[in-house]
Amino acid sequence: MSVATVKRRIKIIRPPSFSPLALLGGFGVLWHYRDLLYTLSVHRIKVRYKQSILGILWAVLQPLSLMLIYTLVFRIIGNVPTGGTPYPIVAFSGLLIWSFFSTALTNSTNGLVSHSHLVTKVYFPREILPLTYVVAALFDFIIASFVLAGLMLYYGIPFTSSLVYVIPILAILVCFVSSISLIFSALQVRFRDVGVAMPLLLQLWMFASPVVYPLSAIPQKYLSFYSLNPMVGVVDNFREVLLHGATPNFDTLALSAIVSLLLVPASYIYFKHVEATLADVV
Predict the structure, then answer these.
(1) Which one, of 151, 191, 173, 134, lies nearest residue 260 by Cα?
(2) Tens digit of pLDDT for each residue in 210-250?
(3) How far apart are CA 254 and CA 75, in angstroms?
(4) Measured between alpha carbons, how far is 153 from 167 in angstroms, rounded to an integer?
(5) Distance between CA atoms of 40 and 111, rounded to whole angstroms?
(6) What is the sign of the dihedral through the CA atoms of 232, 237, 242 and 244?
(7) Distant-in-sequence, close-in-space partners of 57: CB < 8 Å, separation ≥ 6
(8) Which of 12, 91, 154, 203 suits 197 as a labelling partner, its CA being 20 to 30 A distant?
């Protein structure tokens, strides 16, 4: 009795050439695996809240609890000026968008290492793993946004047509955090110090961004240097269009957009270049 031999398809991963065609080819393969990206992202969200009593309420509790703490410290004790806007909603709006950024970056940095069994056994675009954590964090952001809407109603802050600017601001942030996630997740495979240093890095980065204080608290002479941080344009403009119904500060937002758009191809090229050896060292 003969046994049929089934030939399995073998994929050899090599570092791509640094060319626009290779970059487009990589994006094309990623698009081909879009169903896997969706499936793993949904799985990521379900696993996070599986057997949890509070479920998706955890997406709200983190920025809400931090808002209460910073309200006590910075408003009641420190008396941070907010220009007449209630401090709790100033803090919550900044913490909401920062929580998305920090959660996505923290989890995606360990994405490849925590799924080494997949990386070493089956082929798929490896960038899918860190990107699923960005999608999961975006889901948490959307859930927590309903609390921000409730706070706006409570404090009598109207919803204006400037809300449409939230979409491009959020798109810039998604591009930025996705790019940083690809770089850090690849570095974490080789240097585990990256994951260890991440909490400290994010803590310093948060206080270097207008998250728990308004941009107006920064002295004018330091503002140009301070605005080089891409998160400044994102956080401040998110708060301005929501709470004040203003148009974005296109100078700071343009800087964030330029950095993000430059990082997207650069980070993807770097990730695909080191992808060929990820399975060897993970």
Answers:
(1) 173
(2) 998 888 888 888 998 999 999 999 999 999 999 988 899 99
(3) 31
(4) 21
(5) 12
(6) positive
(7) none
(8) 91
List the one residue out of 87, 212, 70, 63 whose CA is nearest residue 144: 63
Token pair 């949904």 is found at 42
Domain ranges of the chain: 20-281
Distance CA 174, CA 104 (A): 10
Q: Whole-prediction pTM value? A: 0.85
* Non-local CB neighbours of 37 within 8 Å, separated by 6+ positions: 30, 128, 131, 132, 135
- Length of the chain, in residues: 282
Query: Which residues touch 148 (CB under 8 Å, ≥6 apart)?
Result: 89, 92, 93, 96, 242
Token reading at 27: 């994006």
Burial of 281 (0-12, 13-18, 19+ CB in 10 A): exposed
